[in-house]
Specification:
With 124 residues, the protein is mainly α. The chain is built from 7 helices and no strands. The longest helix has 23 residues.
């Protein structure tokens, strides 16, 4: 890291940025270790809880309500393959997901034939 470069975070010294980076790395390492210590069952529970949280906290009220309520009712019952599909959907921008499941826009090819997309559209 070249210290003559401008800091990425204005107003912070190079030492503060270095300290932030070290602390970030420490926390990430600890998080990875915790996840490694989980059983398969615990890992599955964590995954499902994260997906429900991500569904409820999209940052747009209509999408939060629609995806969040669907997720609370359905994510606990999904198979691993369905969870993988839903995870693909959750990576899409919130406005796009909302437009796809509300019928305003046609889903793109990589999402169109997912069984979970069909279930979301029916739910909406």
């Amino acid at each position: 890291n070249n210290e003559s470069e401008a800091p990425l975070l204005p107003g912070l010294s190079a030492d503060q940025i270095r300290t932030i980076g070290e602390r970030d790395q420490e926390l990430r390492s600890r998080h990875i270790k915790i996840e490694q210590d989980l059983s398969d069952k615990e890992r599955d529970v964590v995954r499902r809880k994260r997906m429900i949280y991500r569904s409820k906290q999209r940052g747009w009220l209509e999408a939060d309500i629609l995806l969040g309520s669907w997720a609370v009712d359905n994510v606990p019952l999904l198979t691993n393959a369905e969870l993988d599909e839903y995870e693909k959907i959750l990576t899409v921008e919130t406005i796009d997901i909302y437009n796809y499941i509300s019928g305003k826009d046609e889903p793109p090819e990589h999402l169109k034939n997912l069984s979970i997309m069909t279930k979301l559209i029916k739910y909406a």
